[in-house]
């Protein structure tokens, strides 16, 4: 999020460390509040999210937190926007199999990380309880799938998959088995599960299952 | 659940309507309490589940509900056991594609049903917040996958998939894209999504992706 702070505006800051540029304070407040929100979600989940505690943890005035985010739902929705902004750029390993393996490994790494796994469980559960959270969660995955879609376009240009392959469907096919184990059947998520998800998606793509009609 | 009441014990009840057999009252209390739990989950989710309200809705004494189920988590865990018992038997259409289409259609039908979709969202969210719910959810899907595994064994015997195909992996591959849209990316779940999930799983199985090593 520090990254974002520095890119937050096109102003004429001189870049000296410690310089406060226009928008800098706002961005810092947001970074602190969203980090505190992430901590709270990882520790105790959505239903324990408390605006006053977030303000104290972030070292920010309660009035600011209430005025800017309004409610725990507002915090989760903004966290999901920030997570989409911070998500790593897509791989470009030179082959579709390599790129999809990198993608599956990243998903598995995130979901099996104690902190980020707990955050993802919390935001998915929050989305089950609240439509604004659901819309924000949808937006997060939409952004992430769009970010990775060029991987499939490049593969189609190289002739690795049929030209009319729907990249989003192929990418959903890689992620779905991992999230299914993580969130639904509650089964372990091993490296071989990520490999199998990639192999299955590639076989289906090769058979034309994801070709636009 | 009425079905279960009649099959609940192997005793010598004469089957006359209205006859109270050993276990009959206990089974009826359970049926009423679990139906009330399902209603409450569909209406307001796990965090609003209230033992006193469940007792009133079910027409059962509060003491009975507290003694037998202990907590909202106990209600959700028992509901998941009951849902596993009630789940429909696997199809046997004569072809793997037919059986998997029936399975995918059943999953889609359940998840897009306003009441049952809300119940599934609630129990999956509950599992994200509580380990006992997570274990019960895991047990529900384990039972359901086991119930459908013979579909793949029969297909292997007919030579439709490689002999060493792991039926559970193939079945997970059919369900995963549907749950991913339903619970994670919050995208619509159309008939073509169910068809695509089946086609992708069949292509991967044919390519040997789900073969045990």
Walk me through the structure:
Chain A is elongated. Chain A has a domain at 89-206: Tetracycline Repressor, domain 2. Mean pLDDT of chain A is 91; it is low at 1-20. Chain A has helices at residues 2-7, 24-44, 51-58, 62-69, 72-86, 96-112, 114-129, 131-157, 167-184, 191-206. The first copy, chain A, is mostly helical and 213 residues long. The longest helix of chain A has 27 residues, at 131-157. Chain A binds chain B through residues 45, 47, 121-122, 124-125, 127-129, 134-135, 137-138, 141-142, 145, 169, 172-173, 175-177, 179-181, 183-187, 196, 199-201, 203-204, 206-207, 209-210, and chain B through 45, 47, 121-122, 124-125, 127-129, 134-135, 137-138, 141-142, 145, 169, 172-173, 175-177, 179-181, 183-187, 196, 199-201, 203-204, 206-207, 209-210.
Averaged pLDDT of chain A: 91
How many strands appear in the DSSP assignment of chain A?
A: 0
Work out the helix count of chain A: 10
Instruction: Please identify the top-level CATH class of the domain at 89-206 in chain A.
Output: Mainly Alpha
CATH homologous superfamily placement of the domain at 89-206 in chain A: Tetracycline Repressor, domain 2
- Specify the overall morphology of chain A: elongated
| Reported CATH architecture of the domain at 89-206 in chain A | Orthogonal Bundle
| Largest protein interface, residues of each chain | A-B, 40 and 40 residues
* CATH fold group of the domain at 89-206 in chain A: Tetracycline Repressor, domain 2
Structural class of chain A: mainly alpha
The largest β sheet of chain A comes out as: none
How do the helices and strands follow one another from N- to C-terminus of chain A? HHHHHHHHHH
The oligomerization state is homodimer
| Regions with little confidence, pLDDT below 50 for 5+ residues of chain A | 1-20
Radius of gyration of chain A: 19 Å
Strand content of chain A: under 5%
Question: Could you estimate the helical fraction of the residues of chain A in percent?
Answer: over 70%
What's the N-to-C terminus distance of chain A?
Answer: 40 Å
């Amino acid at each position: 999020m520090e990254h974002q702070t520095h890119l937050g505006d096109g102003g004429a800051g001189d870049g000296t460390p410690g310089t406060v540029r226009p928008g800098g304070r706002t961005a810092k407040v947001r970074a602190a509040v969203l980090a505190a929100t992430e901590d709270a979600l990882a520790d105790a989940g959505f239903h324990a999210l408390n605006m006053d505690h977030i303000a104290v943890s972030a070292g920010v005035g309660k009035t600011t937190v209430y005025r800017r985010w309004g409610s725990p739902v507002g915090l989760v929705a903004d966290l999901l926007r920030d997570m989409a902004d911070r998500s790593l750029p897509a791989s470009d390993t030179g082959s579709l199999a390599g790129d999809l393996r990198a993608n599956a490994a990243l998903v598995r790494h995130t979901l099996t990380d104690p902190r980020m796994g707990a955050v993802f469980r919390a935001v998915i559960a929050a989305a089950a309880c609240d439509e604004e959270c659901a819309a924000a969660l949808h937006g997060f995955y939409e952004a992430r799938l769009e970010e990775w879609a060029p991987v499939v376009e490049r593969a189609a240009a190289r002739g690795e998959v049929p030209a009319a392959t729907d990249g989003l469907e192929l990418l959903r096919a890689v992620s779905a088995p991992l999230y299914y184990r993580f969130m639904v059947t509650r089964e372990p998520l091993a490296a071989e599960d990520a490999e199998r998800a990639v192999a299955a998606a590639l076989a289906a793509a090769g058979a034309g299952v994801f070709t636009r009609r």
